[in-house]
Design a protein that fits this description.
heterodimer, A: about 280 residues, alpha/beta, Globin-like, Transcription Regulator spoIIAA, 2 domains, about 10% strand, B: about 120 residues
């Protein structure tokens, strides 16, 4: 294959390419002008062009994992991150790279007006490269989104397992959401640490906010109860909804050794009674 | 003589040590006519199934000699480990600290246990 003349074509037509490309992007993103300014779009595009021609003139091939493309990858990653935080969709992000094709192909066509074979070769090189860069952008977009989800998951874990002291020596652990093994671990740690910190000997685990109880969740609950017992604290499980009571029995889960109450209020009453406390009317 | 024995485990338990402890403890229970044994494991930060089984054995032996065993001072990480190992020590009573453990033993057998404090073992 003959050496590509893309860097030459790009640098010669830079401002034309840029104008046309930005115009195309604005067409696609019509109505989203509130999210990204024209100025920013232009700056991004200009950076892209500059780095593209720099990399190409260093003889970079279509393998975008190569060292020559490092700064391009960084640019696209950063760009995708911006777009994620601005609330763009994946295709709106990818169009940044793909919309560059049309203006570029027009220029290539002009350049090779008399040489059909060279034109085809050059277009193929450009397409292959731009496709890869576009896909890379989408991947980076996806990855940023996954990072966001992961962070939110961790935040949820921390947020959703508070241990509250209802009375001297009586802790309550309101559980919200599904219990998986990772969460059970955190719940257990928080509860046991709470027992140590407050020198509590009673803990009420309220599962009103747990949507479903399957054998695994039940097992996790029993583990938590057993661990609390090892620390010298009794557990009462409260907030068992009628459906959940039925499920537990149908599943054959043995809750015989555990104190259970239908509501948190009942559990609290039992806790006070166990501590020989009464509330005056 | 008081009728509560306090065992503080402060070193890593191994087979020989555990056997010695069992010998000493059963002998002391008989000699002092103890009705309660407190095993303080607050200094343990690593446990394995061996220690879990040993605690169970001691409790069973003490029960045969008519003494109640309370394990006190278990750390959160130790409790989690034991539960994950499937050892929830069903036959053993537990308390958060030595004071609570003594309250438990006194309340459990009123009249049986003198109130003049534990003995070091």
């Amino acid at each position: 294959m003959t050496k590509t003349r893309l860097p030459e074509i790009i640098s010669r037509n830079e401002s034309d390419l840029l104008n046309e490309w930005v115009r195309l992007q604005n067409e696609v993103l019509a109505g989203r002008g509130d999210r990204i300014s024209d100025h920013q779009l232009r700056a991004n595009s200009q950076n892209f062009l500059r780095i593209l021609s720099a990399a190409l003139s260093q003889g970079a091939g279509s393998d975008i994992t190569a060292r020559e493309w490092t700064s391009m990858r960084d640019l696209l990653t950063e760009f995708s991150r911006q777009r994620v935080s601005q609330g763009f969709s994946p295709s709106e992000t990818a169009i940044f790279v793909f919309s560059f094709k049309q203006p570029l192909f027009v220029r290539i066509g002009k350049e090779y007006a008399n040489d059909k074979q060279a034109f085809e070769g050059e277009v193929w090189t450009a397409t292959e490269l731009l496709d890869k860069l576009g896909l890379y952008t989408v991947e980076a977009f996806q990855k940023t989104r996954e990072d966001v989800i992961l962070r939110q998951q961790q935040e949820m874990l921390e947020l959703s397992t508070p241990v509250v002291e209802l009375w001297t020596g009586v802790l309550a652990l309101p559980l919200i959401g599904t219990l998986d093994s990772e969460r059970t671990q955190i719940v257990m740690q928080n509860l046991l640490q709470g027992i140590v910190d407050k020198t509590a000997d009673l803990a009420i685990i309220d599962i009103t906010g747990v949507p479903t109880v399957d054998t695994l969740v039940a097992q996790h609950l029993l583990k938590t109860v057993a661990a609390a017992r090892l620390m010298g604290a009794d557990c009462i499980i409260s907030g068992i909804r009628p459906q959940i009571a039925q499920t537990i029995i149908h599943l054959g889960v043995d809750l015989a050794g555990v104190l259970t109450k239908a509501t948190l209020a009942d559990a609290f009453r039992l806790a006070l009674k166990k501590k020989n406390l009464t509330i005056g009317a | 003589m008081g009728s509560l024995l306090l065992v503080t485990i402060q070193v890593d338990m191994h087979d020989q040590l555990a056997l010695t402890l069992q010998d000493d403890l059963t002998a002391r229970i008989v000699r002092d006519r103890a009705h309660g044994v407190l095993i303080d494991i607050s200094a343990l930060d690593v446990v394995d199934s061996f220690i879990g089984r040993m605690l169970g054995n001691i409790a069973s032996m003490a029960r045969v000699l008519d003494a109640e065993t309370v394990v006190v001072g278990m750390r959160p990480s130790v409790a989690i480990t034991l539960v994950e190992l499937g050892l929830s020590l069903p036959g053993i009573r537990t308390a958060l600290n030595v004071d609570r453990g003594m309250e438990l033993l006194r309340a459990g057998a009123p009249g049986d246990i003198a109130s003049d404090g534990p003995k070091e073992s």
